């Protein structure tokens, strides 16, 4: 879903390590995940925009956030079709759709086809991969 017009942020591993916290680096650059109910935003429902913690690109709007009961921030759609990109993920003995930031390629989480209307999608994101700006 990445748009060729999306500006690409490219940094070395050392630059990412310097910029990101150890938890953010593990999640966003090494495709890790935070434990359920442990990261930020899983139970936050304030109005605002969720941005990529690595490059500050807007990713999700609070109006699309819902309580999926899974322990991670969940949204039914991205801020635009070009904000995130999808990749096939066959790790951990299952097939899933990984979601990355289209601007910096940072791992955000996964999307599943069990969300609410109108999309039926559940973008299950790592809270440490995002920064919410109230508004």
From TrEMBL:
**SUPFAM superfamilies noted in UniProt:** Mss4-like
Q: What class of enzyme is it?
A: oxidoreductase
Question: In which organism is this protein found?
Answer: Metarhizobium album
Q: Which GO terms describe its cellular component?
A: cytoplasm
- Catalytic reaction annotation: L-methionyl-[protein] + [thioredoxin]-disulfide + H2O = L-methionyl-(R)-S-oxide-[protein] + [thioredoxin]-dithiol
> Which UniProt keywords are given for this protein, alphabetically ordered?
Metal-binding, Oxidoreductase, Zinc
Q: Domain (MsrB): give its ranges.
A: 13-135
Q: Which cofactor does it need?
A: Zn(2+)
Q: What does the similarity note say?
A: Belongs to the MsrB Met sulfoxide reductase family.
Cofactor descriptive note: Binds 1 zinc ion per subunit. The zinc ion is important for the structural integrity of the protein.
The record's annotation in PROSITE patterns points to: MSRB
Q: Which GO terms describe its molecular function?
A: peptide-methionine (R)-S-oxide reductase activity; zinc ion binding
Asked whether the keyword Oxidoreductase is assigned, the reply is: yes
Q: What is its EC number?
A: 1.8.4.12
* Organism domain of life: Bacteria
One GO biological process term is: protein repair
What the entry lists under InterPro entries is as follows: Met_Sox_Rdtase_MsrB, Met_Sox_Rdtase_MsrB_dom, Mss4-like_sf
Q: What is this protein called?
A: Peptide methionine sulfoxide reductase MsrB
Give the binding site residues for Zn(2+).
Answer: 52, 55, 101, 104
- Where's the active site on this chain? 124
């Amino acid at each position: 879903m990445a748009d060729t017009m999306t500006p690409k942020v490219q940094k070395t591993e050392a630059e990412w390590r310097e910029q990101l916290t150890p938890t953010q680096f593990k999640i966003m650059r090494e495709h890790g995940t935070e434990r359920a109910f442990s990261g930020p935003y899983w139970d936050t429902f304030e109005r605002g925009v969720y941005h990529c913690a690595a490059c500050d690109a807007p990713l999700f709007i609070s109006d699309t956030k819902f309580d999926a009961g899974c322990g991670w921030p969940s949204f039914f759609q991205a801020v635009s079709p070009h904000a995130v990109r999808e990749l096939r993920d066959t790790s951990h003995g299952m097939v899933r759709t990984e979601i990355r930031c289209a601007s910096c390629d940072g791992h955000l989480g996964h999307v599943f086809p069990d969300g609410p209307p109108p999309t039926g999608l559940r973008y299950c994101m790592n809270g440490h991969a995002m920064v919410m700006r109230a508004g």
